[in-house]
Design a protein that fits this description.
47% helix, 17 helices, globular, 4-stranded parallel β-sheet, binds iron/sulfur cluster, alpha/beta
């Protein structure tokens, strides 16, 4: 008995030592090499079991974005895009929502579910696109263009949403713009690629576009896409315009810089189902690489190639299993939005849902069988 306890304590001490000398992000990988008695898979399974148990105790639901680490996606009750996660957050009966995604998404969940406790496991989970504009900058921009209508992509903070007339997703941006009187000037933010795309699609000259961009998109450029299509000539080409990382591909396609032949523009669910419906055996996927985990898991007989393997969102990857466990243990970090801000932001979000949030509106006239994104 004493020997068992001693071995157990030695293992705990060894884990603590590893924990101290590696940061949380590298914790699991560090353990895999440092512990002779635990493989990485065993440690992941142990953490996932702890998290499941704590979630039951806290009456919590775990939501994970498609771009999260595979082991985080695997412990979640629901995996999806930002709008899908918000909808799950709004309808869950759980008291606590552990939001494994980025900060603006957790804020949107808090706005749509004001009575629930929304937790973000790591406050460093930001968004390079959302941070290109704050409420002060938007107020100043509005002052320069009195009477203009403000349309904000969902990748914005709650404060920016509160200063906006409409929110939109990449899936309904064109439809939202078309619902606004043709003579009204529009301020579109913060994604310059989505802005250029909607200007081209709606043929409106009176859209001013904020020059914001997501750092991940740089890896998914027309050059990389051409190269991958040459390397895999029989592969179907799938675009998932969920986040700022792939709106640049939409823009390049509507500008004619990417050959639209054989392209499928798909929502998350459309993308996950597409391989089973297609005769193709391989697919090139233009989006953040996190979605490849689910595609491969749910379609084991097919092959998937990232448009660029390095197109990875570092903000999504800061959430690790130890941080999810700590979030549940300590009920941290509680994301709240002041009610006055939430009420104004909710109005813009609800308008987005009312105008085609569920409609099947093509993003572009290019491919047949288009699924409109979120
Ligand atoms: S992929 Fe880009 S737009 Fe999406 S959360 Fe990351 S930084 Fe933001």
């Amino acid at each position: 008995m004493i020997r068992v306890v001693t071995e157990w304590r030695a293992r705990v001490l060894q884990r603590r030592y590893v924990f101290l000398r590696t940061d949380l992000t590298n914790y699991i990988d560090g353990m895999a090499t440092a512990s002779a008695s635990h493989t990485r898979d065993e440690l992941v399974a142990e953490l996932q079991a702890d998290i499941k148990q704590l979630a039951r105790k806290r009456n919590a639901v775990i939501l994970a974005h498609n771009y999260e680490r595979p082991e985080v996606q695997d412990v979640a009750d629901f995996v999806g895009d930002s709008l899908g996660l918000s909808r799950e957050a709004a309808k869950t009966s759980a008291a606590v929502i552990v939001f494994c995604g980025v900060h603006f998404m957790a804020e949107t969940a808090a706005i749509l579910s004001p009575t629930k406790t929304v937790l973000l496991p790591d406050l460093a989970a930001g968004c390079s696109l959302a941070s290109t504009i704050d409420a002060k900058q938007l107020i100043a921009w509005k002052a320069e263009h009195p009477g203009a209508v403000v349309v904000s992509y969902v990748n914005t903070t709650a404060e920016v949403k509160a200063e906006s007339d409409y929110c939109c997703t990449s899936g309904n941006a064109v439809e939202v713009i078309n619902s606004i009187a043709a003579d009204k000037q529009i301020l579109f933010l913060p994604d310059m690629f989505l802005g250029a795309h909607v200007r081209r699609m709606t043929k409106r000259e009176n859209i001013l576009v904020w020059m914001g961009e997501c750092h991940v998109h740089a890896g998914i450029d027309p050059e990389n896409i051409r190269l991958q299509r040459q390397l895999h000539p029989n592969a179907e080409f799938l675009i998932h315009p969920e986040c700022g990382c792939s709106t640049s591909v939409l823009e390049a396609m509507s500008a004619g810089d990417i050959d639209a032949d054989g392209v499928q523009i798909l929502s998350t669910e459309g993308m996950i189902k597409r391989p089973a419906l297609s005769d193709a055996d391989e697919f090139i996927v233009a989006t953040e690489v996190g979605i490849l985990h689910r595609l491969r898991r749910e379609n084991p007989s097919k092959r998937f190639h990232a448009a660029n393997e390095r197109a990875s969102c570092a903000y999504m990857k800061v959430t690790t299993l130890p941080k999810v466990r700590t979030a549940l243990e300590r009920l941290q970090h509680h994301i709240t939005v002041p009610s006055a801000t939430a009420d104004r932001a909710r109005r813009a979000i609800e308008r987005m849902v009312a105008i085609g949030g569920n409609a099947k509106q093509p993003l572009s006239p290019i491919p047949d069988g288009v699924d409109p994104g979120e």
